[in-house]
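Side project, low priority. Logging it here so it doesn't get lost.
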Amino acid sequence: MKFETPAGVNPIDQQKVIGQPASRLEGPLKTTGTATYAYEYNRAAPKHAYGYVVGAAIAKGQIRRIDRTKAKAAPGVLAIVTAADVGQLPPGQFYVDRLLAGPAVDHYHQAVAVVVAKTFEQARAAAALLKVTYIATKGAFDLAAAKDAAPLPKPGPYSGPSQTNVGDFKGAFAAAPVKLDATYTTPDQSHAMMEPHATMAHWEGDKLTCWCSLQQLNWGARDLGTILGIPKENIRLISAYIGGGFGGKGTALSDIVLASLAARAAGRPVKVALPRPLIFNNTTHRPATIQRIRLGATADGTITAIGHESWSGNIPGGGTESTTASTKLLYAGANRFTELRLAVLNLAEGNAMRAPGEATGMMALEIAMDELAEKLQMDPVAFRIKNDTQVDPEHPGRPFSSRKLVECLQTGADRFGWSKRVAKPGTVQEGQWLIGVGVAAAIRGAPVMTSAARVRLNRDGIVTVETDMTDIGTGSYTIIGQTAAEMLGVGLDKVVVKLGDSTFPQSPGSGGQWGAASATSGVYAACLKLREAVAKALGLNPEEAQFANGQVLAGNRHYALGEAAKAAELVAEDAMTYGTLARQYAQDTFGAHFVEVGVNRYTHEIRVRRMLAVCHAGRILNPKTARSQVIGAMTMGVGAALMEHLVVDKQVGFFVNHDLAGYEVPVHADIPHQEVVLLEGLDPTMSPMKAKGIGELGLVGVAAAIANAVYNATGVRVRDYPITLDKLLGKVSLI
């Protein structure tokens, strides 16, 4: 099915099941510990062995020699795999990192070997006996030091041009009566998901099955095939449940590659789980940025010039952090300039992490908007509303498909009590606490991608949905089940959802905020085809048939749904593809974040006291799971604002705090009352579902709102994240 014109009235609009706050279908499995994750498929591959990955002890150089004598003789050892055994492996199409070092080492903890033994303890002990001799060479680990020589990168497949110009930015900025020129920094960050990267691999002849933790299975099979040099068709990936990903499990990484190599070498199934230090230094992360923002405005608050320059680093061949993506679309302004520069650094690969580019870019832009509002002596909410636009600022002939940013800001201001805000910083006090409030706008792209599904109907009226879509804790099982239930007129209890198997029809997987809208649209297409098959089987006109309450009705005739499959199971498969609407309209989601903080005037401890997010993302497929996504993102925003910082040892070239003890993320005690408002508003240009993704929108802008609240509380403007108390010491008035 091809979606080429805006959607009209369709079965989804009934919203008998879709749009309702259904609890997660897989919730009981997860809460009882019976959901099977990648490392737990013991019955599927009995007599499995264990692989333990050895990471490089240098950040750049060469492997001179690997002495495996003692390791090979250790108890239980079955195999040791290095690049000397399998040759130099090429990268996949998504990640550029070589997943097995040799002879060159590209970054610290790049895998140099996997040791396979009968037990995990034996594999770990033997790995410690592996003696690797290196020739270390000088590397680059400091973004600030590499900044001035960083070139403009070539556009990547998931990023636009590295430089854009509209109008005369330099002239308009120079002439602006009120202007801001400030630099902001964001640090390297880790995904820090609960479930580690893990895989169990099993070969049967030349066929490979991997039980894994991947967000995009078709990409994973493609990339794993490329790396191993085998046809994609020979690979089956199973990823039924994922314990968090945030973009860090997009496709094939070292766990799945080394488990596959180890299983082939050992001649039996092998499971591999990366220890935390390897996750932080071996896999991917959100790269640090240095951002310069220049804003110019007239005295009445009309923005006349917007400039955003950004620097990030990556390993050779890696992509840039697209921090300017939001700046291109969020506010009006006739004269505009954006630029991305990319330095080569010998740290682990920087790649997708929840709202890549937008999250870090808005950490800077939305502080800058507050700073300019203060110079203008304008309310920050009013300043943002004044500079709203209903068209793409870089391409004025391209309107937004739907844009309720102003309504998000106004609704949030009303719900949060923004009118009581005291503009002068450091004014509001409660005992030892200085109280401040902050705001930030939010924008995140809402792409939809080709997605397919297969739908089955049996004689009992049970509908089974199959697609290789994954669920990383987002509620995919539930909204896909709700879609099928709505389309076929049955309750959610009559739907079985099967996900996470690469042999199922292909979806784009989880990521990029495209998963929900894309995967449900694929299910819609398959269900539409099944409705036709049901009607024909019952001798009804498909155009007249209605599906409701487990019945199929047309005129005065009605049948139980299962009667259509009385003779044999009915099966329908289809994919949703798209025309040019995404080029005709700017398709984005919008929101506003409001935060209240308390800062202890003596210790400078920062506590977030309350948070509000107002989001507009088309039809909300399930308000319960959507709210869950938003509050999780808000929590992640607290971490980005106040805690998260992968500290780089600039001499040795690695992330020092490479575990969950040293890398701080929010815990329950850090998170206050969170309120989420989901604005009504369908978007018929997206798909028949009229929905957009929301999982990344909830993060974008949160950190800046917290930063703005800290400033309102203390009068101290911190432009270097995270905002830790040492950055306030000696600057907060004690009077």
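Brief comment: The first strand starts at residue 2 and ends at 3.
Revisit when time allows.
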